[in-house]
């Protein structure tokens, strides 16, 4: 089955090339395929993935060529991306870690409510945390970088000005932890990958969604809903975690000098690159919302407090689940908060 799947994906790749999806292959020692879920004009592909690809190709003197396949052009669904890299169906992927619930229980710490806010500093902190405390969750791949997005908020058909406004509201959640939080807040969580959000809102499958400002342009969300709620303080209601990983065999068979180029473009600096793309994307998305004349509600510290209290309830649920899995969740939260504080200069 795997050979057949690779054959199908190879034909898909050839078709995508013929249609202009990627540049035709040029002379190179190694050609790698980078697969991800968002359209090329979205913030992360445009301002992080493509610059990273160019950096690697330039540093290799053209010996490495990386073909970019956005929007799941090589087939499959977003939750399958990590396994596509792990199993060698593709060479490199960018994905949302929360799309595979339970696979990254230690990394989930960074998705807990009010953990982090600044996406650049948060991404650098997340990279350090994973390297120290969750590296085993990436043992089957070559880890290039992990990162987070900016402060999470609500976008919906009706404004959220207090906790009771969420009671019974169908809200899209992008991960297991975010869905636990939504339940604690009184909402009805509906899990789905981000590309499905626009249509789900338009058709009434959901009433509201949890995403950062960054993804607004790609979804044209400012045209679909008119109410947006953010929270006071330097930490967002939630965040989601992301990973760039490479097939281990594809990395291992590189000559030493080309391995070093991949290594030199992995780690904290690359995490910061992706975090910066998120930060810049937040500004663009918020600007579109403001230009559209939509309503942005910024809850005061007093109005944010009930959400923080429920956030603690989410943490308690997560710690209990972690304990059942043999993980000291409380200790991991303490370590994560210390790393985040250090990244923020505190």
Please tell me about this protein's structure.
The structure is a single chain. By secondary structure, this protein is an alpha/beta fold. It has two domains: 2-150 and 240-281, Bacterial extracellular solute-binding protein, family 7 (D-Maltodextrin-Binding Protein, domain 2), CATH 3.40.190; 153-238 and 292-343, Bacterial extracellular solute-binding protein, family 7 (D-Maltodextrin-Binding Protein, domain 2), CATH 3.40.190.170. It is 45% helix and 17% strand. The chain contains 13 helices and eleven strands. The protein has helices spanning 2-18, 43-59, 81-86, 119-133, 176-184, 197-202, 216-219, 221-224, 248-252, 256-264, 268-291, 301-324, 329-343; strands at residues 30-36, 64-69, 92-96, 141-148, 153-156, 170-173, 188-191, 208-211, 227-231, 241-247, 295-299. The strands form two sheets. The protein has a six-stranded mixed beta sheet with strand order 7-6-8-5-9-11. A five-stranded mixed beta sheet has the order 2-1-3-10-4. Helix 5 links the parallel strand 6 and strand 7. Helix 5 (176-184) crosses helix 12. The longest helix is centred in the C-terminal third of the chain and has 24 residues, at 268-291. It starts with a helix and ends with a helix. Residues 14-26 have low confidence and may be disordered.
């Amino acid at each position: 089955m795997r050979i057949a799947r690779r054959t199908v994906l190879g034909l898909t790749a050839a078709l995508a090339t013929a249609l202009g999806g990627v540049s035709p292959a040029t002379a190179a020692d190694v050609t790698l395929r980078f697969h991800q879920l968002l359209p090329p004009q979205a913030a992360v592909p445009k301002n992080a993935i493509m610059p990273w690809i160019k950096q690697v190709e330039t540093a290799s003197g053209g010996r490495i060529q990386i073909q970019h396949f956005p929007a799941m052009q090589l087939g499959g669904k977003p939750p399958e991306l990590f396994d596509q890299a792990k199993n060698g169906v593709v060479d490199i992927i960018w994905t949302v870690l929360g799309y595979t619930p339970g696979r990254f229980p230690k990394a989930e710490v960074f998705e807990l409510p009010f953990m982090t806010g600044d996406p650049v500093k948060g991404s650098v902190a997340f990279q350090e945390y994973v390297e120290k405390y969750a590296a085993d969750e990436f043992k089957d791949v070559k880890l290039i970088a992990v990162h987070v997005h900016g402060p999470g908020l609500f976008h919906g058909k009706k404004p959220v000005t207090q906790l009771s406004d969420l009671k019974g509201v169908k809200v899209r959640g992008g991960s297991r932890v975010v869905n636990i939080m939504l339940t604690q807040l009184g909402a009805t969580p509906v899990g789905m990958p981000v590309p499905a959000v626009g249509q789900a809102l338009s058709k009434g499958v959901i009433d509201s969604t949890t995403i950062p400002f960054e993804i607004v342009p790609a979804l044209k969300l400012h045209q679909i809903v008119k109410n947006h709620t953010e929270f006071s303080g330097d930490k967002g209601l939630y965040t989601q975690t992301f990973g760039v990983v490479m097939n281990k065999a594809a990395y291992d068979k590189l000559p030493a000098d080309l391995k070093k180029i991949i290594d030199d473009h992995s780690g904290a600096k690359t995490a910061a690159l992706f975090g910066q793309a998120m930060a810049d994307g937040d500004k663009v998305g918020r600007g579109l919302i403001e230009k559209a004349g939509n309503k942005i509600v910024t809850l005061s510290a007093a109005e944010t407090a009930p959400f923080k209290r429920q956030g603690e309830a989410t943490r308690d649920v997560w710690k209990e689940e972690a304990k059942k899995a043999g993980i000291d969740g409380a200790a991991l939260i303490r370590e994560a908060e210390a790393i985040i504080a250090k990244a923020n200069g505190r």
